[in-house]
Amino acid sequence: MTPDILIVSNRGPKDFVWDEGRWVARPSSGGLVSMLSPLASKPTVSWFCCVSEPPDAALAQEGLFTSAADQLDAGLHVVPVPVPAPTFHAYYGRISNEVLWMLQHRVLGRGGYEYLDRGRYDAWADGYLAANRMLADAIAVSCASARAILVQDYHLYPLPALLRRKYPRAPILHFTHIPFFDVGLMKLIPPSWRETILRGLLGADVVGFQTDDDRDAFLACCAEFLHVQCDSPSASVTAADGRCVRARTYAASVDVAGLARDVRSKHVAAARARLAFDPRMKHVIRVDRLDPSKNQLIGFRAFERLLETRPDLRAHARFSAFLVPSRTDLGVYRAYRETVFACIETINNRFEKDCGGRPIQVFYTNDRDQALAAMADCDLLLVNSLEDGMNLVAKEWAMISRRPGVLVLSETTGVAAEAGDSALMISPLDIEGTARAMATALDMPPEERQHRIDRFRRRIEAWTAHDWLAAQLADLRVPAEILDLPSALPA
Known about the structure:
By secondary structure, the chain is an alpha/beta fold. It contains 19 helices and 17 strands. The chain folds into 2 domains: 5-253 and 465-483, Rossmann fold (3-Layer(aba) Sandwich), CATH 3.40.50; 256-461, Glycogen Phosphorylase B (Rossmann fold).
């Protein structure tokens, strides 16, 4: 059967979790996968993703390489595209993560995006561009035609233009899940790279972003670096071939009904029993990948400052950090992990006696059930990312919090636009301000907590993951009812 819709992403529908001493592939229920699954499960939809067999057994565990067998799913039509291990490492590790991810999240200098050398230039040509060409070629071999194509994220900026040559009449949408470059940031990569990125995106008919600021940044970059005609009122760009490319905002969201089912499941109940949160304690949590952009180090130092300034909380406040292993084959991530764990050890050693136990507990694994149980029962969720496209953890927490809790949120996250009047807002590099916000949250009366979280919940319920997906299909002129999806909400 020829597919109607193609989904193309770097990652497939499986995540790795640590199970009985080894990493195993399990269906993912977070982020990109949860938002795309209602579409991907349809029989006329094919999902193309990159896979790379590990070069050896040692790297398989350390690097979390993913094979074709790992990504196959009985409920989805997944088409794994093999990429040779050296090419994959250059494309995914050296460019996508060590350059684009770091730059777009403004992790600059030592420990982030620091400089480009000959090795990076080689990785761009022989890794990033090569992997995108491999994907385009594999898709063309598998599918003679397509009703619509949805391309996902920063790994695949060149792909829309490559697919345009192979499918000249198919409507194509590219969605960037992370913050987009502003003009100043884009000047930190070579002119040929930024032209490839922008012209690649202009191969699409619709270019989607998390926030209006990201959309406007894209338009500004097109005007500055390509000197093409951009129309701000209509948020559109005239491509070199004369096509009108529309830039649109689709704020990522969560599956509200699915979350409600998940948090009531026996698996979450078992995780809650394992955690055994003491209801008499004040529980601070964070749930994120262990990544420099997530800014865990500053968060732990802010908690240390909270314990310094509030001796009355030492016996009553506990910080549970659910840190998901991320990109463990990359040196910058391993170095950051070591720094974070050393910071935690220092704080625990300093306050263990006064607190009557270690005040910070780390869960270094990918256990969604455990994270949901903690989110439901915490007093405070800390999200202090340096930069985030959206941050769906904040939305998940809001829908399932039972205490209810309080959100302490970085102003530089995409979700801040929706949660700004419900959360306690912080600057991500402000240790003192974050500590004071945490104190305010833990002291907040229950009535105010409930009022704040109710306001945030109403916004999430008004624009769910289904609306995110249906709006994109509508802009590609694909009737949502064909896929049994809800129609997009009116603008």
